Amino acid sequence: MQIVFFGIGYVGLVQAAVFAEAGYTVMCVDIDAQKVADLKAGKIPIYEPGLESLVRDNVKAGHLLFTSDPKEGVAFSPLQFIAVGTPPDEDGSADLRHVLNVARSIARHMDEAKTVVIKSTVPVGTADKVRAAMTAELADRGRRDLRFDVASNPEFLKEGSAVADCTKPDRIIIGTDNLRTEQQLRELYAPFNRNHEKIIAMDVRSAELTKYAANCMLATKISFMNEMANLADRFGADIEKVRIGIGADPRIGYHFIYPGIGYGGSCFPKDIRATIRTAEADGFDPLLLKAVEARNEEQKSFLCTKILHYFGGDLRGRTFAMWGLAFKPKTDDMRDAPSRVLMEALWQAGAKVQAFDPAAMDECRRIYGERPDLLLCEGKEATLAGADALIVVTEWKQFQAPDFLAIRSALRSPVIFDGRNIYDPAIGERYGLEIHSVGRRR
Ligand code: UGA
């Protein structure tokens, strides 16, 4: 089977490589000629465990092809995936320009029936817009005779485990109002639908909403726990005990109830905002989602407030060691990362930051460039030299069991601000370190 992917960003590249590995021949189309050239040479533009070798091997085997010519892509297969980005507009709603450009381009070049599958994260109703754009383009060409269908097949991969998530999906949502399209997509996903049924077929609009609903639900869990952590902090309770206590109820469960300094990344913040805007545009006030977003924004300042309090409200001339910059471990992504809000607040207050992240150093350099109040260090130990305190922002494995004695002797003040609750304050105490966490008792 041959497949085409328009857009070789995060979702497109990972899914295309996983399809290629399953034995399909996949052609990826992207307008970025440099990206196409790099990928042909096996160089990948993102940090994602396992992806580089997957791409390299499949390029070599001839299963993964790249082009910047849409005409070539359209001619390659009846199955056309759209996986281009849907960046936020100024008001936070999803910008569908790239999705609709690809739709028009498919209609402009096609000369046989096509199934167009939307993989990009898009608001409800986008498939109808794609359909309308293609119909108009075909009418302009005088080719109303050409048949096509538009399906929704949202992606649920997580950064840092994207290859595994795609290879072993927990569900495959097929949104279509057409039985033939459903059969076609069932056949495509057959290699990933072994052991037990993972395909859930539904109508297009429900599939579109399923994607947003999943991310909104997960973000809600996080904001809820962060709110409880604030209460725990005030009332002298320990949120980690509370987490274990509530998670034991199978109706609540242990997944995704870890408090911290807020969710970030390219998905949750963008998707929650886009859902809010879509609802408002339709005259509905999404009270709960607005609260989820507001709590998250507030939560990013949680540690900064504690730091200010600890240092008597004045951070001028202070230096902070920072472990972790990416929005979560196993990625170099700093989009909407809580580290950025924290770092910028520290700079604003006149402090310096000495930071280390196992993957996001280049990304941090790209975002902030050279500046006198930011020192990017070679390793986590180097950040401690001359620092007043240590701040832990991302829970990378290599930060989880540090040499507390070395930290104690390197820091000017014996204090760690732990934004991900990875250290037991009682252990810190044994080493003479004060550990300030998110809603944890010291
Ligand atoms: C998220 C979803 O988990 C995926 O299912 C979805 O496919 C993806 O968005 C997407 O829409 O493309 P991702 O953004 O890669 O995936 O990251 P997550 O692992 O979900 O983490 C998101 C944020 O939530 C991180 O900042 C993380 O630190 C935070 N988080 C997560 C918590 O603060 N507490 C938790 O208990 C879990």
From TrEMBL:
E.C. code: 1.1.1.22
SMART domains assigned to the protein according to its UniProt record, in alphabetical order: UDPG_MGDP_dh_C
Binding site residues for NAD(+): 30, 35, 86, 121, 159, 270, 335
Keywords per UniProt: NAD, Oxidoreductase
Name assigned to this protein: UDP-glucose 6-dehydrogenase
Location of the UDP-glucose/GDP-mannose dehydrogenase C-terminal domain: 321-425
Reaction equations catalysed: UDP-alpha-D-glucose + 2 NAD(+) + H2O = UDP-alpha-D-glucuronate + 2 NADH + 3 H(+)
InterPro entries assigned: 6-PGluconate_DH-like_C_sf, NAD(P)-bd_dom_sf, UDP-Glc/GDP-Man, UDP-Glc/GDP-Man_DH_C, UDP-Glc/GDP-Man_DH_C_sf, UDP-Glc/GDP-Man_DH_dimer, UDP-Glc/GDP-Man_DH_N, UDPglc_DH_bac
Binding, substrate: 156-159, 211, 256-260, 264, 328
Pfam family, one: UDPG_MGDP_dh_N
Family note: Belongs to the UDP-glucose/GDP-mannose dehydrogenase family.
Catalytic residues, chain numbering: 267 (nucleophile)
Highest rank taxon of the organism: Bacteria
Leading EC class: oxidoreductase
GO molecular function: NAD binding; UDP-glucose 6-dehydrogenase activity
GO biological process annotation, one example: polysaccharide biosynthetic process
Pathway annotation: Nucleotide-sugar biosynthesis; UDP-alpha-D-glucuronate biosynthesis; UDP-alpha-D-glucuronate from UDP-alpha-D-glucose: step 1/1
